[in-house]
Amino acid sequence: MQIFGVDIGGSGIKGAPVDLERGDLAQERHKVLTPQPATPDGVADGVREVVRHFDWSGPVGVTFPGVVTGGTTIRTAANVDKEWIGVDAAALLSERLDGLPVTVLNDADAAGVAEMHGGAGRGRTGTVIMLTFGTGIGSALFTDGHLVPNTELGHLELHGHDAEKRASTKAKEDHDLSWEHWARRVQKYLSHVEMLFSPELFIIGGGISRKAHKFLPLIEGVRAEMIPAELRNNAGIVGAAMAASAAGAAPVLVVEEATEGWAEPEGLA
To answer: What residues form the membrane-spanning segments (predicted)?
Structure first.
């Protein structure tokens, strides 16, 4: 069974059909640049371009870099245009996609669900936090496999600033920080999140996760286990497709053993 997933980011919009039984992309993803400014109309056009690239005609799951309620409505827009706030994104995107059914959810929540059910968090219990480092810092919080949606921990205050303004990948690039300098910032951020939530596991995602060997060994004083995401920068696409499935678009393979196969995400049911 395949459903299409789209991941809207501050710099790029990428998507592909997802094989739900394997929990991975069915084809190589297609990416376009996020328009600047990232207005609802501009981003919707980008999503349409990605979906039409595959001549797709079925359900579509879409991630958004902000708080999403009810699978439809945008409540915050830190790294895209403020015109998004209050928009029924599902309705807008469905109209732009000629009536295809659309489900929308927070981008980090989507990535976290994918990692918990087919990646680095598979079979893990207790408190797990997925953090995606990119234009900002996204977060997904799980307790015994259940998602607590829209946590937005990248906006915690750290030294008088939004944490993502100091510890995101964009902050590293904007200030030309060395791996050592950036790792110290990430360490302070992780220590702050750990103080608040006491997780057993941090999953580090986003595009930077493919270079985890360059910074994770430099982080000290964090008690929780820290591991890179396995689905890397495709996790959002996979999680978006899973959300569309959980919303009723199509069944997800459910297996008897929680540590084998691909299971329906409890937090999205």
So the answer is: none
